[in-house]
Design brief:
Elements lengths: L12 E5 L2 E10 L5 H4 L2 H10 L9 E7 L5 E8 L11 E5 L2 E9 L5 H14 L6 E4 L2 E4 L2 E5 L13 E7 L2
Length: 170
């Protein structure tokens, strides 16, 4: 995390997303323990592989509740073509359809906090309102996604990773 203003590589846009079934693992974390949820993606792929299910799209991190000072509730997820059963920590869900503010970034994931801030500023400047509400536990989001468009096994240089941010609008 750099804490500096960042110039976005691409202009943000508003897109319509369809409802998307997925399987995921949710965990409460802090910014320092983010790997606790990120490291569970292989578990999701193994779950799907054991059932012969091919992912329908890129894996993602979904931020449910955000309090940067204390705790975040984040889910690692993998989209599937149709609803799925869950077991243990792996549970099914559905990403909501609707309008999303989105931007794509190529670069190290450490700057995604700054990319997020730039997307939030762009949305505010364009009169867009996110589907979120404050709570004592932190900001609760209807759907705040980081889509992981790069497979680390194929692209080991993290500076070449591509991530798309998609935040649901009201």
């Amino acid at each position: 995390m750099t804490g500096m203003a960042i110039e976005l590589q691409h202009e943000p846009t508003v897109v319509e997303r369809e409802e998307q079934p997925y399987v995921g693992i949710t965990a409460p974390i802090t910014m320092d323990t983010f790997d606790a949820v990120a490291d569970r993606l292989p578990e999701l792929f193994a779950f799907l592989g054991e059932r012969g299910v091919v992912p329908a799209a890129a894996p993602f991190f979904r931020y449910w509740t955000i309090d940067m000072e204390r705790e975040l509730v984040v889910e690692a997820g993998v989209p599937v073509a149709t609803s799925s059963e869950g077991t243990g920590d792996v549970q099914p869900g559905v990403l909501p359809a609707g309008r999303y503010a989105t931007v794509t970034h190529r670069g190290h994931p450490d700057v995604l906090v700054d990319v997020t801030a730039a997307l939030l500023d762009w949305a505010t400047a364009n009169g867009l309102e996110f589907d979120m509400s404050p709570s004592p536990e932190g900001d609760r989001w209807a759907s705040r996604l980081e889509l992981l468009l790069t497979n680390p096994a194929d692209v080991p240089d993290m500076n070449d990773w591509v991530t798309q941010l998609c935040f649901k609008l009201r």
